[in-house]
Every structure is written in C-alpha cells, then in structure tokens.
Amino acid sequence: MKLLLHCCCAPCSTSCLPALRGEGIEPDLFWYNPNIHPYGEYSLRSDSLIKFADNENLKLKMIDEYDLRVFLDAVLPETGKRCQKCYSLRLEKAALAAAQDGYNAFTTTLLVSPYQDHDAIKRIGFDAAEKYGVEFLYRDFRPFFREGQQRARTAELYMQKYCGCIFSEEERFHQKGKKQLNINIDEHPKKEAVPANDDHIFQRLELITGKEGLEKLKNTKVLVFGLGGVGSWAAEALVRSGIGKIGIIDSDTICASNVNRQVEATTLTIGKSKVRVLKKRLLEINPACEITDWNELFCREKASVFDIASADYVIDAIDSLPHKLDLIETVCGAGVTLFSSMGMALKIDPSLIKTASFWKTTDCPLARLVRQGLRKRGFSSDFTVVYSAEKPLHAKDAASAPCEKPANGSVVTVTATAGLFLANLVLRDITGL
Length: 433
Ligand code: SF4
Description:
The protein is an alpha/beta fold.
C-alpha cells in the first residue's frame, strides 16, 4: 500500500512507524502543522521531523508554511472547540496531498496520542477521505505511545512541552502555576511520575481473571451515566479493571460541594467539566482505554446520541428521577444489561449496601419513587440494582453551597462503595467469577 503519513511531530512518528512497518507498510511522511507557535517552536519540531526521516530513510513531503493566520482564522472566536478545527485543517491537507500524489491512503500520527480527542480525529479523518476520494487508514496507535516516546528520547529527537498552539501553551502556563501552588503547600514535593510499563498495569488483575478473562474485559464496552459520588468511582474501577471501551456521560461542571465524594473533584478542578477532568484521569490510568465523553444530560429525546445498543453494559448513576426513568426504559428496551444505583444520600453504613432485583429493594426512598414512576409508564422488566438497606438519616443544617441542585448529605465511604459494587457486577458478569 502506498501510504502518506501525516506527522504532527517526530516523537509521535517514532511511536507509529513500527506499527505500520509491522503491517509491511513503508509510509512517506507528510508535514503540515499550522497549529505550532511561535516560529522558534515550529522550526524545532519541523527540523526534528527532518532528522527522523533521515534516520529512518523515509521520504518526507513538507508544506513548510508557518500558517499562523490560517490557523487563527479557523479556530477563532470559538477557541473552546479549536482542536476539532485544528485536526480538520491538517487532515484535509493530508487527504488532498494523498489524492493529488496518487497515494492509496493517508493516516495521521495524531492517532497515537492519549491526550488528543481520538474519536474526533477518527471521524475527521474519514470525512476528509470522503471529501478527497482517498482512503483513511484508521489505526489505534495509542498502545505504542509510551514506548515510542522513550525511543524518541534515546534518539535525541526534540520533545515538545505543549501540544502546539498558543492556547495550549497558555494552558501549560496555568498548569505550571497550579503545580507551583502545590509545591508551596507541600514542603516535600513528589518526584515526577514515571510512566508505567503498560504491559504490566493489569498483572495483579490477571492473576485473578487469567489471560482469557483479561481479554474479555478489554473487549467490553460500558457506558456510565452520571459521574457523581457513585458513577465517578464506578468509572474509575472499570478502567482499573481493564475495561477496554468506556463512555462517560454527565452535563455538570465540578463545584466545591462535590469534593467530599467525587473522584474528579478537587479544589484545583472546581469550575471544570466533570467528563473532561475524569477522562484525563482515566487515560492516565490506562492510555489504551478507548474513552468517549459526552458533556450531556441523558433524556429520551437524545438517546440515539449515545449508541446504547452498541454497549455491553450500562451503569446508571443518575440522580434526577425523570432522566433515570428515561434511561432505565431505554436500556432495558435495547436489551443491554443494566446495573442501576439507587439512593445513597443520608446513609452512613457501607456494610448495608446490597445488590438485588430492582423490585425487591427495601428502605430506599429513591427506589420507591423509581418503582412508582416506572409502573405509571407500564414498565415491568427487571434489572439489578445496588441499594442501601439502611434507613435514611435525618438531614442536619449545613452552610449552603453554591451548587444549583437541592442538596442531600452524602459521604464518600457510602457513595464510593456503591460505585465499586456497580463496577464489580460488570467485572464478575464478564469473567464469570
Ligand atoms: S491544543 Fe493541540 S490539537 Fe488543540 S488546537 Fe491547539 S495545537 Fe491543535
């Protein structure tokens, strides 16, 4: 196959090349990256790719234009959605070059990064391919990321410190500020984290599940609706349990009153989108996990967005009653296995958390309301729930938090336990343990 490989930088190209060569493909390289600023940084990266092409004896085609204005015209004023526009600019140019120069297909090294929006790159790649009448060779190169970065260091290729554009450089500046703040608070700052050897992160799990079980977990897709005190822990436990594909869905931003019980909530993440913060954390745990995030609230009208029928399991950790009813009906209607969390507010004893058939729960006010709501809708199917058999405590007065929703007291020891129970239901169902 005659393949044109769009290269975002030399280290990512180092990661992708062995995978392509493993398939017997010797690509030609292509450089067009108007997203890299300022010019000094642009030169360092383009020179480094020239060095990589020389080292590997590969042909390199360069559109060596420092197109800062083209980039800004594409991404302004909506800088919040800039990455997708940035991918389009680069992939369309690659598709056009591939079509004009008689290549069978093109692909991109952007597909190796666990920090980019992988699904968006895939979609935009296929769109560009259709537009220019050339094939897009989609590959998930992410499992090769860390090893490639190591090889690039050894080859003394230039290793960039930020994604590329001035906005990503600004974000790095703010991150540095936060790190500095941590160092001031912590008199014994921790050493830089050492990336794990990806082959070994599930070693202890495999001793329980065996190779076959681990493989099944890797091939399983789970959707987690609601990333509060229950759902966020369920998502974390699923990724730590080797689930290969996960969708996380929540429309909220993090607020101060979430910090006592939600994985993604810390004093440094207040004001940020829950799904974005959690996705970043989950990718740090397992960069090879395919994670799709939706900053959305589930409702029946939007159900098709989440492609529920393609999932093996759905975890319902939604607390809003109408949306919970919609989700239960939709998932059961699609014939997908549902594990649903009932109410964990105003409970203090994690040892009273149980799993049961939905219709057999006791002492759970939320389950009672869900039963009433579902009966009214004529729903009678069964599914498994995690609930607390503890009688609810009486709420005490507390200073009101600047969250919009009416608040109920809850503790992490209970909510996290419920989340772990939900993840464990998935784990045991898949492995049969
Ligand atoms: S952060 Fe990276 S991918 Fe997003 S716009 Fe900037 S350079 Fe492009």
